[in-house]
Protein: Methyltransferase-like protein 13
Amino acid sequence: MQRFTSISELNNAVSSVQKAALVCNGLARSNLAGHNEVIMDLHRPSDQAPRYTIHILDKPPARGLGKYAAFIVPQGREVEWLFATPAGRKKLQDSANFQRLAVVTLHRDQVYSTLDEVKLELADSIKNLSPAGLSEQIPYLSLGSDVGKRETLICGFSKISGDFRIEEVEANGKTLRRLIFLSNQFVVQSEALVKTVKIKGKKERKKIDFGYLACQHHLYMSVGVQLATTLQNPKKDVEKDVLVIGLGGGGLCSFLHAALPNTRITAVEIDPIMLEVAEQYFELKQDKRFHVVIDDGLAFVERCRNEDIHFDAVLFDVDSKDLSLGMSCPPQSFLANQILQHIKEIIGPKGLFMLNLVCRDESLRSEALDNLHKVFPAVCSYKLDEDINEIVYCANDEKYKTVEQWKKNLGTAGRGLNSAVKETKLASEDALEVAEFLSELKI
Structure:
Protein backbone atom coordinates (compact mmCIF):
# COMPACT_ATOMS: atom_id res chain seq x y z
CA MET A 1 0.00 0.00 0.00
CA GLN A 2 1.25 3.47 -0.89
CA ARG A 3 0.22 6.59 1.03
CA PHE A 4 -0.11 10.01 -0.60
CA THR A 5 0.24 13.38 1.08
CA SER A 6 -1.73 15.37 -1.49
CA ILE A 7 -4.42 15.07 -4.16
CA SER A 8 -1.86 15.94 -6.86
CA GLU A 9 0.36 13.01 -5.81
CA LEU A 10 -2.64 10.69 -6.02
CA ASN A 11 -3.61 12.04 -9.45
CA ASN A 12 -0.07 11.59 -10.74
CA ALA A 13 0.04 8.02 -9.48
CA VAL A 14 -3.30 7.16 -11.07
CA SER A 15 -2.22 8.77 -14.35
CA SER A 16 1.02 6.79 -14.32
CA VAL A 17 -0.82 3.51 -13.77
CA GLN A 18 -3.29 4.33 -16.56
CA LYS A 19 -0.49 5.14 -19.02
CA ALA A 20 1.35 1.94 -18.13
CA ALA A 21 -1.83 -0.10 -18.61
CA LEU A 22 -2.41 1.55 -21.98
CA VAL A 23 1.14 0.73 -23.11
CA CYS A 24 0.95 -2.87 -21.90
CA ASN A 25 -2.41 -3.35 -23.61
CA GLY A 26 -1.00 -1.98 -26.85
CA LEU A 27 2.05 -4.23 -26.65
CA ALA A 28 -0.16 -7.27 -26.10
CA ARG A 29 -2.27 -6.51 -29.17
CA SER A 30 0.31 -5.33 -31.70
CA ASN A 31 3.83 -5.78 -33.07
CA LEU A 32 6.17 -2.76 -33.06
CA ALA A 33 8.24 -3.88 -36.05
CA GLY A 34 8.96 -0.87 -38.26
CA HIS A 35 8.22 1.58 -35.45
CA ASN A 36 10.31 3.20 -32.72
CA GLU A 37 11.07 1.39 -29.50
CA VAL A 38 8.80 1.72 -26.48
CA ILE A 39 10.70 3.00 -23.44
CA MET A 40 9.49 2.63 -19.86
CA ASP A 41 11.02 3.65 -16.53
CA LEU A 42 10.24 1.49 -13.50
CA HIS A 43 10.21 3.13 -10.07
CA ARG A 44 9.83 1.84 -6.57
CA PRO A 45 6.81 3.29 -4.75
CA SER A 46 7.53 6.84 -3.51
CA ASP A 47 10.92 6.91 -5.27
CA GLN A 48 11.27 9.65 -7.87
CA ALA A 49 14.44 8.13 -9.33
CA PRO A 50 13.94 5.27 -11.79
CA ARG A 51 15.31 1.90 -10.77
CA TYR A 52 15.13 0.27 -14.20
CA THR A 53 14.67 1.47 -17.77
CA ILE A 54 13.22 -0.97 -20.30
CA HIS A 55 13.47 -0.62 -24.09
CA ILE A 56 10.98 -2.85 -25.92
CA LEU A 57 11.62 -3.63 -29.58
CA ASP A 58 9.96 -5.97 -32.05
CA LYS A 59 10.82 -7.56 -35.37
CA PRO A 60 8.40 -9.19 -37.85
CA PRO A 61 7.42 -12.81 -37.13
CA ALA A 62 9.70 -15.31 -38.82
CA ARG A 63 10.45 -19.00 -38.62
CA GLY A 64 13.11 -19.84 -36.06
CA LEU A 65 12.55 -16.77 -33.88
CA GLY A 66 11.75 -17.12 -30.21
CA LYS A 67 8.68 -15.14 -29.15
CA TYR A 68 9.90 -12.99 -26.27
CA ALA A 69 12.88 -12.55 -23.96
CA ALA A 70 14.32 -10.01 -21.54
CA PHE A 71 17.97 -8.96 -21.62
CA ILE A 72 19.45 -7.54 -18.40
CA VAL A 73 22.40 -5.22 -19.03
CA PRO A 74 25.01 -5.45 -16.25
CA GLN A 75 25.81 -2.26 -14.33
CA GLY A 76 28.32 -0.05 -16.11
CA ARG A 77 27.70 -1.64 -19.52
CA GLU A 78 24.65 0.50 -20.34
CA VAL A 79 26.85 3.16 -21.97
CA GLU A 80 28.18 0.75 -24.61
CA TRP A 81 26.95 1.16 -28.19
CA LEU A 82 25.21 -2.22 -28.18
CA PHE A 83 22.93 -1.17 -25.30
CA ALA A 84 22.90 2.66 -25.46
CA THR A 85 21.69 3.19 -29.04
CA PRO A 86 18.64 2.03 -31.03
CA ALA A 87 20.94 0.59 -33.73
CA GLY A 88 22.94 -1.30 -31.11
CA ARG A 89 19.84 -2.73 -29.44
CA LYS A 90 18.56 -3.82 -32.86
CA LYS A 91 21.81 -5.70 -33.39
CA LEU A 92 21.45 -7.21 -29.91
CA GLN A 93 17.95 -8.40 -30.83
CA ASP A 94 19.25 -9.97 -34.04
CA SER A 95 21.89 -11.84 -32.05
CA ALA A 96 19.40 -12.95 -29.39
CA ASN A 97 17.02 -14.20 -32.12
CA PHE A 98 13.73 -13.17 -30.50
CA GLN A 99 10.71 -11.50 -32.08
CA ARG A 100 10.33 -9.22 -29.06
CA LEU A 101 13.17 -8.20 -26.77
CA ALA A 102 12.94 -6.15 -23.57
CA VAL A 103 16.35 -4.61 -22.85
CA VAL A 104 16.66 -3.72 -19.15
CA THR A 105 19.23 -1.25 -17.86
CA LEU A 106 20.08 -0.70 -14.18
CA HIS A 107 20.50 2.80 -12.79
CA ARG A 108 23.33 4.30 -10.76
CA ASP A 109 22.53 5.25 -7.15
CA GLN A 110 20.49 2.05 -6.83
CA VAL A 111 21.58 -1.10 -5.02
CA TYR A 112 21.22 -4.49 -6.71
CA SER A 113 22.23 -7.72 -5.02
CA THR A 114 22.12 -10.74 -7.32
CA LEU A 115 20.94 -11.39 -10.85
CA ASP A 116 18.30 -13.81 -9.55
CA GLU A 117 16.86 -11.15 -7.24
CA VAL A 118 16.76 -8.65 -10.11
CA LYS A 119 14.87 -11.20 -12.23
CA LEU A 120 12.41 -11.77 -9.40
CA GLU A 121 11.87 -8.03 -8.94
CA LEU A 122 11.28 -7.57 -12.68
CA ALA A 123 9.12 -10.66 -13.23
CA ASP A 124 5.66 -9.04 -13.13
CA SER A 125 6.69 -6.03 -15.21
CA ILE A 126 8.40 -8.17 -17.86
CA LYS A 127 5.34 -10.43 -18.04
CA ASN A 128 3.06 -7.42 -18.53
CA LEU A 129 5.09 -6.41 -21.61
CA SER A 130 4.75 -9.78 -23.32
CA PRO A 131 2.86 -10.35 -26.59
CA ALA A 132 -0.65 -11.84 -26.43
CA GLY A 133 -0.97 -15.60 -26.19
CA LEU A 134 2.47 -16.20 -24.72
CA SER A 135 2.31 -19.38 -22.67
CA GLU A 136 5.96 -20.41 -22.34
CA GLN A 137 8.32 -19.17 -19.65
CA ILE A 138 10.09 -15.91 -20.49
CA PRO A 139 13.87 -16.41 -20.78
CA TYR A 140 16.20 -13.88 -19.17
CA LEU A 141 19.45 -13.19 -20.99
CA SER A 142 22.56 -11.32 -19.84
CA LEU A 143 26.33 -11.16 -20.32
CA GLY A 144 27.18 -13.22 -17.28
CA SER A 145 25.88 -14.60 -14.03
CA ASP A 146 25.88 -11.38 -11.99
CA VAL A 147 24.55 -7.81 -12.16
CA GLY A 148 27.96 -6.29 -12.80
CA LYS A 149 30.08 -4.06 -10.61
CA ARG A 150 30.01 -0.29 -10.44
CA GLU A 151 31.99 1.69 -7.86
CA THR A 152 31.56 5.44 -7.53
CA LEU A 153 34.89 7.09 -6.72
CA ILE A 154 33.58 10.65 -6.51
CA CYS A 155 30.41 12.67 -7.01
CA GLY A 156 31.23 16.17 -8.17
CA PHE A 157 29.72 19.33 -9.57
CA SER A 158 30.91 21.68 -12.27
CA LYS A 159 29.36 25.08 -12.90
CA ILE A 160 29.73 24.41 -16.62
CA SER A 161 28.81 20.73 -16.95
CA GLY A 162 26.67 20.16 -13.86
CA ASP A 163 26.76 17.01 -11.73
CA PHE A 164 29.29 14.36 -12.67
CA ARG A 165 30.62 11.05 -11.41
CA ILE A 166 33.90 9.23 -11.59
CA GLU A 167 33.10 5.52 -11.66
CA GLU A 168 34.98 2.26 -11.99
CA VAL A 169 33.22 -0.63 -13.71
CA GLU A 170 34.19 -4.18 -14.59
CA ALA A 171 33.74 -5.05 -18.27
CA ASN A 172 35.14 -8.01 -20.21
CA GLY A 173 37.58 -8.76 -17.42
CA LYS A 174 38.94 -5.22 -17.41
CA THR A 175 38.61 -2.34 -14.95
CA LEU A 176 37.52 0.89 -16.62
CA ARG A 177 37.46 4.31 -14.98
CA ARG A 178 34.86 6.67 -16.42
CA LEU A 179 33.84 10.30 -16.23
CA ILE A 180 30.06 10.61 -16.61
CA PHE A 181 28.05 13.83 -16.82
CA LEU A 182 24.62 13.15 -15.31
CA SER A 183 23.01 15.54 -17.79
CA ASN A 184 23.81 12.89 -20.42
CA GLN A 185 24.49 9.82 -18.36
CA PHE A 186 24.33 7.23 -21.14
CA VAL A 187 27.37 8.82 -22.78
CA VAL A 188 30.89 8.31 -21.43
CA GLN A 189 32.73 11.64 -21.40
CA SER A 190 36.13 10.06 -20.72
CA GLU A 191 37.29 6.51 -20.09
CA ALA A 192 40.60 4.97 -19.07
CA LEU A 193 41.84 1.43 -18.62
CA VAL A 194 43.04 0.79 -15.07
CA LYS A 195 45.80 -1.75 -14.57
CA THR A 196 47.09 -3.18 -11.32
CA VAL A 197 50.88 -3.08 -11.14
CA LYS A 198 53.21 -4.75 -8.68
CA ILE A 199 56.22 -2.86 -7.40
CA LYS A 200 58.92 -4.87 -5.66
CA GLY A 201 58.71 -4.45 -1.92
CA LYS A 202 55.52 -2.39 -2.12
CA LYS A 203 51.80 -2.98 -2.28
CA GLU A 204 49.97 -3.35 -5.57
CA ARG A 205 48.63 -0.10 -6.95
CA LYS A 206 46.34 1.01 -9.73
CA LYS A 207 47.77 2.73 -12.78
CA ILE A 208 46.19 4.30 -15.88
CA ASP A 209 47.18 2.67 -19.18
CA PHE A 210 47.90 5.59 -21.54
CA GLY A 211 48.03 3.23 -24.51
CA TYR A 212 44.30 2.56 -24.21
CA LEU A 213 42.11 4.87 -26.30
CA ALA A 214 38.49 4.27 -25.32
CA CYS A 215 37.17 6.77 -27.85
CA GLN A 216 37.97 5.45 -31.31
CA HIS A 217 37.82 8.93 -32.82
CA HIS A 218 40.91 9.81 -30.76
CA LEU A 219 42.86 7.18 -32.69
CA TYR A 220 41.99 8.75 -36.04
CA MET A 221 42.79 12.22 -34.76
CA SER A 222 46.16 10.86 -33.61
CA VAL A 223 46.87 9.66 -37.16
CA GLY A 224 46.31 13.25 -38.32
CA VAL A 225 48.73 14.53 -35.69
CA GLN A 226 51.30 11.98 -36.87
CA LEU A 227 50.84 13.26 -40.44
CA ALA A 228 51.11 16.92 -39.44
CA THR A 229 54.21 16.45 -37.30
CA THR A 230 56.19 14.13 -39.60
CA LEU A 231 55.37 14.19 -43.32
CA GLN A 232 54.11 17.77 -43.29
CA ASN A 233 56.95 18.98 -41.08
CA PRO A 234 59.82 16.50 -41.54
CA LYS A 235 62.43 18.47 -39.58
CA LYS A 236 64.05 16.14 -37.07
CA ASP A 237 65.15 17.12 -33.57
CA VAL A 238 62.58 19.94 -33.61
CA GLU A 239 59.50 19.76 -31.40
CA LYS A 240 56.23 20.15 -33.31
CA ASP A 241 53.39 22.14 -31.74
CA VAL A 242 49.94 20.64 -31.28
CA LEU A 243 46.86 22.48 -30.01
CA VAL A 244 43.96 20.49 -28.54
CA ILE A 245 40.73 22.33 -27.74
CA GLY A 246 38.84 20.28 -25.15
CA LEU A 247 40.56 18.24 -22.43
CA GLY A 248 37.98 16.04 -20.70
CA GLY A 249 39.85 13.35 -18.79
CA GLY A 250 42.95 14.03 -20.87
CA GLY A 251 43.10 10.61 -22.54
CA LEU A 252 43.92 11.94 -26.01
CA CYS A 253 46.59 14.34 -24.74
CA SER A 254 48.21 11.69 -22.53
CA PHE A 255 48.33 9.28 -25.47
CA LEU A 256 49.86 11.85 -27.84
CA HIS A 257 52.37 12.93 -25.19
CA ALA A 258 53.50 9.33 -24.65
CA ALA A 259 53.38 8.10 -28.26
CA LEU A 260 54.85 11.12 -30.06
CA PRO A 261 57.84 12.42 -28.08
CA ASN A 262 58.64 15.05 -30.72
CA THR A 263 55.41 16.92 -29.99
CA ARG A 264 54.76 19.86 -27.69
CA ILE A 265 51.10 19.88 -26.68
CA THR A 266 48.91 22.76 -25.55
CA ALA A 267 45.44 21.79 -24.33
CA VAL A 268 42.73 24.37 -23.74
CA GLU A 269 39.91 23.57 -21.31
CA ILE A 270 37.22 26.01 -20.25
CA ASP A 271 36.31 24.12 -17.07
CA PRO A 272 38.94 24.16 -14.26
CA ILE A 273 37.15 21.27 -12.54
CA MET A 274 37.93 19.04 -15.53
CA LEU A 275 41.64 19.71 -15.13
CA GLU A 276 41.42 18.67 -11.47
CA VAL A 277 39.56 15.51 -12.48
CA ALA A 278 42.10 14.68 -15.19
CA GLU A 279 45.05 15.13 -12.83
CA GLN A 280 43.56 13.38 -9.79
CA TYR A 281 41.72 10.48 -11.44
CA PHE A 282 43.25 10.02 -14.91
CA GLU A 283 46.93 10.67 -14.02
CA LEU A 284 47.32 13.63 -16.35
CA LYS A 285 50.76 15.19 -15.85
CA GLN A 286 51.93 18.54 -17.18
CA ASP A 287 55.59 19.09 -18.05
CA LYS A 288 57.75 21.08 -20.47
CA ARG A 289 56.16 19.24 -23.41
CA PHE A 290 52.57 19.47 -22.25
CA HIS A 291 50.61 22.19 -20.52
CA VAL A 292 46.94 23.01 -20.01
CA VAL A 293 45.45 26.48 -20.37
CA ILE A 294 42.16 27.24 -18.62
CA ASP A 295 40.40 29.46 -21.11
CA ASP A 296 37.55 29.67 -23.57
CA GLY A 297 38.67 27.80 -26.68
CA LEU A 298 37.36 30.43 -29.09
CA ALA A 299 39.08 33.25 -27.21
CA PHE A 300 42.33 31.29 -27.19
CA VAL A 301 42.16 30.69 -30.95
CA GLU A 302 41.54 34.39 -31.58
CA ARG A 303 44.46 35.33 -29.33
CA CYS A 304 46.80 32.94 -31.17
CA ARG A 305 45.82 34.48 -34.47
CA ASN A 306 46.29 38.03 -33.18
CA GLU A 307 49.68 37.20 -31.65
CA ASP A 308 50.85 35.26 -34.73
CA ILE A 309 51.18 31.97 -32.81
CA HIS A 310 51.26 28.91 -35.06
CA PHE A 311 50.66 25.19 -34.57
CA ASP A 312 51.46 22.21 -36.78
CA ALA A 313 48.17 20.59 -35.80
CA VAL A 314 44.95 21.95 -34.28
CA LEU A 315 42.31 19.57 -32.90
CA PHE A 316 38.71 20.39 -31.91
CA ASP A 317 37.40 17.73 -29.52
CA VAL A 318 34.81 19.73 -27.64
CA ASP A 319 31.15 18.96 -26.99
CA SER A 320 28.08 21.16 -26.93
CA LYS A 321 26.27 21.55 -23.63
CA ASP A 322 22.95 22.10 -25.44
CA LEU A 323 21.65 18.55 -25.88
CA SER A 324 18.58 19.74 -27.81
CA LEU A 325 20.65 20.52 -30.90
CA GLY A 326 21.21 18.01 -33.66
CA MET A 327 24.96 18.60 -33.52
CA SER A 328 26.65 17.70 -30.24
CA CYS A 329 30.31 18.14 -31.33
CA PRO A 330 31.60 20.75 -31.76
CA PRO A 331 29.32 23.63 -30.68
CA GLN A 332 28.18 25.48 -33.80
CA SER A 333 30.08 28.60 -32.73
CA PHE A 334 33.32 26.67 -33.31
CA LEU A 335 32.46 26.39 -37.01
CA ALA A 336 31.79 30.09 -37.56
CA ASN A 337 33.60 31.43 -40.62
CA GLN A 338 35.75 33.82 -38.58
CA ILE A 339 36.99 31.03 -36.28
CA LEU A 340 37.79 28.78 -39.24
CA GLN A 341 39.68 31.64 -40.89
CA HIS A 342 41.71 32.04 -37.69
CA ILE A 343 42.52 28.30 -37.73
CA LYS A 344 43.52 28.56 -41.38
CA GLU A 345 46.11 31.19 -40.44
CA ILE A 346 47.27 29.37 -37.31
CA ILE A 347 48.13 26.11 -39.11
CA GLY A 348 49.88 27.89 -41.98
CA PRO A 349 50.62 26.31 -45.37
CA LYS A 350 51.67 22.88 -44.05
CA GLY A 351 49.61 22.40 -40.89
CA LEU A 352 46.53 20.25 -40.35
CA PHE A 353 43.20 20.97 -38.66
CA MET A 354 41.08 18.10 -37.33
CA LEU A 355 37.70 18.10 -35.70
CA ASN A 356 35.43 15.51 -34.18
CA LEU A 357 32.03 16.06 -35.83
CA VAL A 358 29.06 14.44 -34.10
CA CYS A 359 25.88 15.33 -35.93
CA ARG A 360 22.52 13.54 -36.04
CA ASP A 361 20.91 16.20 -38.23
CA GLU A 362 21.99 15.67 -41.84
CA SER A 363 21.26 19.27 -42.81
CA LEU A 364 23.51 20.55 -39.99
CA ARG A 365 26.21 18.10 -41.01
CA SER A 366 26.08 19.29 -44.62
CA GLU A 367 26.21 22.90 -43.45
CA ALA A 368 29.25 22.17 -41.26
CA LEU A 369 31.12 20.47 -44.10
CA ASP A 370 30.20 23.30 -46.49
CA ASN A 371 31.66 25.83 -44.03
CA LEU A 372 34.91 23.86 -43.90
CA HIS A 373 35.13 23.54 -47.69
CA LYS A 374 34.68 27.30 -48.07
CA VAL A 375 37.73 28.00 -45.91
CA PHE A 376 40.14 25.12 -46.51
CA PRO A 377 41.33 24.07 -49.98
CA ALA A 378 41.47 20.40 -48.97
CA VAL A 379 38.99 18.52 -46.76
CA CYS A 380 38.73 14.78 -46.12
CA SER A 381 36.64 12.79 -43.64
CA TYR A 382 36.39 9.39 -42.00
CA LYS A 383 33.12 8.19 -40.45
CA LEU A 384 33.34 5.68 -37.64
CA ASP A 385 31.42 2.47 -38.14
CA GLU A 386 29.31 2.08 -35.02
CA ASP A 387 29.35 5.69 -33.80
CA ILE A 388 28.04 8.88 -35.32
CA ASN A 389 31.49 10.43 -34.86
CA GLU A 390 33.12 11.70 -38.04
CA ILE A 391 36.73 12.89 -38.12
CA VAL A 392 37.28 15.73 -40.58
CA TYR A 393 40.80 16.57 -41.76
CA CYS A 394 41.42 20.04 -43.24
CA ALA A 395 44.57 21.38 -44.90
CA ASN A 396 45.80 24.47 -46.72
CA ASP A 397 48.21 22.34 -48.75
CA GLU A 398 46.86 22.14 -52.32
CA LYS A 399 48.31 18.67 -52.86
CA TYR A 400 45.54 17.21 -50.70
CA LYS A 401 42.79 18.06 -53.19
CA THR A 402 42.56 14.40 -54.23
CA VAL A 403 41.49 11.52 -52.00
CA GLU A 404 44.41 9.50 -53.39
CA GLN A 405 46.91 11.94 -51.86
CA TRP A 406 45.07 11.87 -48.52
CA LYS A 407 45.15 8.07 -48.58
CA LYS A 408 48.82 7.94 -49.48
CA ASN A 409 49.97 10.25 -46.70
CA LEU A 410 47.47 9.19 -44.03
CA GLY A 411 48.44 5.59 -44.78
CA THR A 412 52.09 6.43 -44.18
CA ALA A 413 51.11 8.31 -41.01
CA GLY A 414 48.99 5.40 -39.80
CA ARG A 415 51.85 2.97 -40.20
CA GLY A 416 54.12 5.47 -38.47
CA LEU A 417 51.71 5.71 -35.53
CA ASN A 418 51.60 1.91 -35.26
CA SER A 419 55.39 1.87 -35.06
CA ALA A 420 55.39 4.70 -32.51
CA VAL A 421 53.05 2.96 -30.04
CA LYS A 422 55.27 -0.13 -30.13
CA GLU A 423 58.52 1.79 -29.80
CA THR A 424 57.18 3.69 -26.78
CA LYS A 425 55.80 0.41 -25.33
CA LEU A 426 52.24 1.74 -25.24
CA ALA A 427 51.08 -1.37 -27.07
CA SER A 428 52.49 -4.61 -28.43
CA GLU A 429 50.14 -4.66 -31.43
CA ASP A 430 49.09 -2.19 -34.11
CA ALA A 431 46.73 0.51 -32.86
CA LEU A 432 45.22 1.14 -36.31
CA GLU A 433 43.93 -1.14 -39.06
CA VAL A 434 45.40 1.00 -41.84
CA ALA A 435 43.81 -0.63 -44.91
CA GLU A 436 40.31 -0.50 -43.42
CA PHE A 437 40.79 3.14 -42.40
CA LEU A 438 41.97 4.20 -45.86
CA SER A 439 39.11 2.40 -47.62
CA GLU A 440 36.55 4.60 -45.86
CA LEU A 441 38.22 8.00 -46.40
CA LYS A 442 36.07 10.39 -48.39
CA ILE A 443 36.37 13.91 -49.81
Q: What stands out?
A: The chain is about 35% helix and 25% strand. The chain has a mean pLDDT of 89. The chain has three domains: 7-141, 150-209, 216-439. Residues 150-209 form one domain.
